[in-house]
Structures are given as C-alpha cells and as structure tokens.
Specification:
By secondary structure, this protein is of the alpha+beta class. It has 13 helices and 17 strands. It has 4 domains: 128 residues, 2-Layer Sandwich (N Utilization Substance Protein A, Chain:P, domain 4); 64 residues, Nucleic acid-binding proteins (OB fold (Dihydrolipoamide Acetyltransferase, E2P), Beta Barrel), CATH 2.40.50.140; 74 residues, GMP Synthetase, Chain A, domain 3 (2-Layer Sandwich), CATH 3.30.300; 95 residues, K homology (KH) domain (GMP Synthetase, Chain A, domain 3, 2-Layer Sandwich).
Length: 398
C-alpha cells in the first residue's frame, strides 16, 4: 500500500466507523514504533512522520554523529552522516530513514495487530459514548429475539436487553416489531456497551409526552410527578406557569389525539392527567380523580391526609384492588386515608371539622379543602387556598 492509499483508507475508516483520523494516526505511530523495537531492539530514538495533507509517511532514527560507533541504532559515523549532508559534524543529530523492507514479516504483523486492536477499542468507545449520552432517554428499537425470558432489542448499532422484570406483564413481542423503550443503563464492557432498557419505568411515559407534546418539550407545560402501574394505569400531574395554557388540555390534545398516541404505544394503558397544585389538599383531590371528594385534610409535615368522599364514590376513590388510591398516594407523596361520608360521620370526623354545622376546629398544621362548600377561612386557619378537586384511598397505601 502506498502512502496515498494509506491515508485514503484512514478517511474511509473515519467515515464508516466514526473514529477520528487523529486517533488512527496515533495508533499507526505507536504500532510502527513497536515494529521498530521488535526489529531493531530499540525505538527510543525512532520517529514516525504522518502528514495527511501531503500524504507522506516516513520512519527514521535520530542518530548522533560520533568518531567511533558503539551502537548502530543510536550512533552514526561522520563518514556515513556526510553521505546525507556534507555539513554534518561530530555531535550533530542525523535523521536516518528506515526502509520499509527492514521491518520484516513478524514486525509488520505486530503493527497490524496493534492498529486493529486500536480500531476495535475506538469502535467500542464511540458506541459507548453515543449510547451513554442517551441514558435516561427513550429510543425506538427492533425486537430481535427472546433470550430465555428476556428480549434482545436492536437500537441501531448495538443490541439492548429488555429483562423480564422490566417487561409489562402480559406484553408479548414478535421479531422485527418496532417498540419504544426507556434506556435504563449503559455500561462499558470489553465486548462493547451493555445496554439495559425498560418498558415499565414511569419515565418512559414522561419521555413519550415530551416527544408527543410540544408544550412539554419546550417547558411551557411541566410534568411535576408520575405514578405508574405498568400495563394498567398511570397518573400524571402537570402544571403551567402560563395562565393562557391549559396543561391538561395540552397533554390530551384535540379529541384526545396526543394522549391516545401514547396510550397506543403503551398498548392500552390508561392515563389520568391531572392538574398539579402547591396546595396539598387540592393536589390530593385532583390525584383521586375521577372520584369526587367532599373534603381533604392534609398534614404537610407528617405527609398524611384524611379524605372524605360521598358514600357512592368510595369504591371509585379507592379503585379496583386499591389501585386509584395507591397511585394517588405515590403521585402526591402522601399517605392517604379515605372514608365515606357515613364512615366519617360515625367516627366523628365530620363533627370534628365542623362540616355539618359550620363549627371550625383548630387546623393550624393542616390544609383543608371542602369540595362542596369551599375553603375554611376561619381565624384558626392560617393559610388561604385556591381551587380544584382531589381524592385518596381508604387503605392508606402509598
């Protein structure tokens, strides 16, 4: 291979494998120095010149001009030196070219191995950096095959692993099917990047909304929190500081187009989108949607809340197997105790909060929202609150 062919090959590798030419040239330099050491026994004074602009490649030894040569690798006689330039004198350094034929078959093989190893290392590094930058993001992959109960997903240049515990229960895949996954972790290994992905992570839902809803992507609408039971139901709290933007409406889209696209991707998983509020009582009521709430008493310090709902709304507030209450608890971060109106009356809770007769208790440490009659603004109630609705669960689950 002549010099031009060498540099043309470097250009091709740079484009094909996304490895910089400078890195390849450094690998070539190191491999040639190794070849020099293998062939001549020393390489400390060997120099390699690679000039991609002029397409020049040369190797030489820097030798000192001496009267009596004791080391042919480090020294050169005055007579020999003056064959290169008649002006050389004792003590000067002469650059003596190394003919390629002097490297020998074994040295050339070693140099080739070093170059190939460097290329493999750089390929792994490039792939790792490329996918490490996508960690905690979503990616579209193609189902390859089942590996036991795990699934191999091709993400383009590498395969990722969808472990059994990161799969939605009951979800089945067929080869060549395209699915979206959340990249959990990217590890660097000697065999290339090892990528773990998920279909159950709550952040998958968040990233899907960021991709689908412009207002979420540009920050106009903020996703404050998400709770999810993958394959069944997700609750998501959204907020916008722009009074002209309805955060829930933006996420739902015209005729539900935006949210339905995400539901389809999640294969029918239900998604409840509710308004976030810095008022804990209002936030809890919203989180219990679609159930209606009579009142919420929230303790911000203890992160507990008591919720009263109409008798006929109790099962809806709690949800099937407690799911609605459980998701609302995770969404808000509160331990929620849900009681029906009858249960609250029997326990004396309604009397305690003065719901029936307007008697106000002392709630210095509580947020209280009366879903039917508004906020209690008595003297003992330190804070003023806004609007909206919320609910929680009878079994106080988080």
């Amino acid at each position: 291979m002549n010099n031009k062919e060498l540099f043309d090959a470097l250009d091709a590798i740079e484009k094909e494998k996304d490895i910089s030419k400078a890195t390849l040239m450094e690998a070539i330099e190191n491999s040639v120095l190794l070849a020099c050491k293998t062939h001549y026994g020393k390489a400390d004074n060997a120099k390699v010149i690679l000039d991609p602009v002029k397409a020049e490649f040369s190797v030489y030894y820097e030798k000192e001009v001496v009267e009596n040569v004791e080391d042919n690798i480090l020294q050169i006689s005055l007579e020999e030196a003056r064959k290169y330039n008649g002006k050389y004198d004792i003590g000067d350094i002469v650059a003596v070219p190394v003919p390629n034929k002097d490297f020998g078959r074994i040295a050339a093989t070693n140099a080739k191995n070093v170059i190939m190893q460097k290329i493999r290392e750089e390929e792994r590094k490039v792939l790792f950096n490329q996918y490490y930058a996508k960690e905690k993001e979503i990616a579209t992959g193609v189902v390859q095959r089942y590996v036991g109960k795990n699934v191999s997903i091709n993400l383009g240049k590498v395969d990722a692993l969808l472990n059994e515990n990161e799969q939605v229960k009951g979800e089945k895949f067929v080869p060549t099917e395209r699915i979206k996954v959340y990249i959990l972790e990217v590890k660097d290994t000697t065999k290339g990047p090892r990528i773990l992905v998920s279909r159950t992570h709550p952040e998958l839902v968040k990233r899907l909304f960021e991709a689908e809803v412009t207002e979420v992507k540009d920050g106009t609408v903020e996703i404050k929190s998400i709770s999810r039971e993958a394959g069944s139901r997700t609750k998501m709290a959204v907020y916008s500081s722009d009074p002209d933007v309805d955060p829930v409406g933006a996420c739902v889209g015209i005729n539900g187009a935006r949210v339905n696209a995400i539901v389809d991707e999640l294969r029918g998983e239900k998604i409840d989108i509710i308004n976030w509020s810095d008022n804990s009582a209002i936030f809890i009521e919203n989180a219990l949607s679609p159930a209606k709430v009579i009142c919420v008493i929230a303790d911000d310090e203890e992160k507990t809340a008591q919720v009263i709902v109409p008798d006929y709304q109790l099962s809806l507030a709690i949800g099937k197997e407690g799911q609605n209450a459980r998701l609302a608890a995770r969404l808000t971060g509160f331990k929620i105790d849900i009681k029906s109106e009858t249960q609250a009356a029997e326990s004396g809770l309604l009397d305690e909060i003065g719901y029936y007769e307007g008697q106000s208790g002392e709630y210095d440490d509580y947020d209280l929202y009366d879903g039917e009659e508004g906020y209690d603004e008595s003297e003992d109630f330190d804070e003023e609150y806004d609007e909206e609705y919320d609910e929680e669960s009878d079994n106080s689950e988080e």
